[in-house]
Amino acid sequence: MDLIKTAQDLIRFRTETGNAEEIHRCLDYVQNLFDSSGALVRVFEKPGIAPVIFISNADTDDFDVLILGHLDVVPADDNMFDPIVENGKMHGRGTLDMKSFAAVAFNSMFHVLENNLDLKFGVILSTDEEKGSKGTETFMEAHPDLKAKIVLDNDVGGDILKIVSKCKNPVFIKIESTGLEAHGSTPWDGIDANENLITVLNNIRKIYPYFSKDRPMPENTWIDTVHFAKICGGQVSNVISNYAEALLDFRLTENSSLENLKKNLDTCMVHGVTYKISSASVPVVMDENNPYIQDYKRFAEHILGREIEFEQIGGATDSRAFAERGSIVIMHSGTGEGMHASNEYVVVDSVEKLAEIQKRFLDKLAGK
Fold first, then answer.
1. Quick check: helix, strand or coil at residue 91?
2. Which of 76, 170, 177, 196 is deepest in the core (most CB within 10 A)?
């Protein structure tokens, strides 16, 4: 398999989340890629749910190794779906997040098949990760016994010299404020839903401070945070708002809990304002001294000729579903910048090096 060509082929599909036609064209490409390879390729679909493609070398629910990722991307201009390689960098939508590393997963699958490695191995790629991974959630619910001893998570792009050992728990909260309409000139005749929502948001900020690029960073960034993702209320300028809402994005460390968050939110509410949890997950926390993670790290350092560090990130990962089922999760991918931006790129050498690291690690696991 030509690794970089496959990555470029994948990038040319405009698989923006929700673009069902293009997503299915991309899935057809993947199925054709593995035609006659001996791999078992299944596309999991349910009405109203984005498909998940599952490629494996065994018909089982108990795997030695699985690789996780996604094929959907965030929106971009047309030119970003025509990948260009210049000065060792591949530019385009999905180069870093994360079609290059989906190609790495395919490359690992071919390596397992062609070398008859004694491993039960599979690749699982969702197509709605950029908007909440409902597809992965539904897929996992439909496969309650699916598990893997080791999960390789390629969806943490940024720096091949860092292995992620911790990811926070993303919790999305919807706050709703109800009021009483009145003319804007007589506010005493109404109850302003906007004002009450603002009061609650200010109360929340007393517990979870505001951070931004133009303010000093906290000394320790491994803390609970929240950003106010969406705020809206009111219809016209001269009417007291009778409804307002906000969507909040909390990121919790493993030292926090959903129950503690609820207690904090309860203290922040005022009359007429309520909240509900839209979605919640679990943090992914791995022991850096785990022998499998240390083995992987040694292979990576040997191939890269450099030391590798562990890092912690605030972003979420679909591998949390397998962490809950007891998997050892190794979160590592290649180097690049501009994720979700117009300057997205990946360093080509890092894609090739990641593929080599995975192959050598799989060889070791198979006893070769």
1. strand
2. 177
